[in-house]
Amino acid sequence: xxxxxxxxxxxxxxxxxxxxxxxxxxxxxxxxxxxxxxxxxxxxxxxxxxxxxxxxxxxxxxxxxxxxxxxxxxxxxxxxxxxxxxxxxxxxxxxxxxxxxxxxxxxxxxxxxxxxxxxxxxxxxxxxxxxxxxxxxxxxxxxxxxxx
Length: 148
Prior knowledge:
By secondary structure, this protein is mainly beta.
């Protein structure tokens, strides 16, 4: 019973059933097979600060874009940014998480809103990241294909 309650809490956090305040803020995460991610890219700030973008899709055909950032180094970094996806959120659809400190050894994510997939086809998402105000970085494409 405790296991199913824990699974319900995780599902609420990952798929937007939580209040709107659950996004867009930086938060810890745990990925699973529902995550469809781009490659991981280093930032120009450091090879140790890396990021990628993912599209999370649940069994109810709901999806959300997420920007994941990890600090594999020994120095803290200051970051801001978020995911964007015209396919999921419409023209110019993006979410932005405010500046925060990414501690050494920490990995956090900025989640976009959960939305229903609108039909069959390809869905793409990218992430925008600023680290220590060095400048804008853009991730590779995360892709999810809904077959009908």
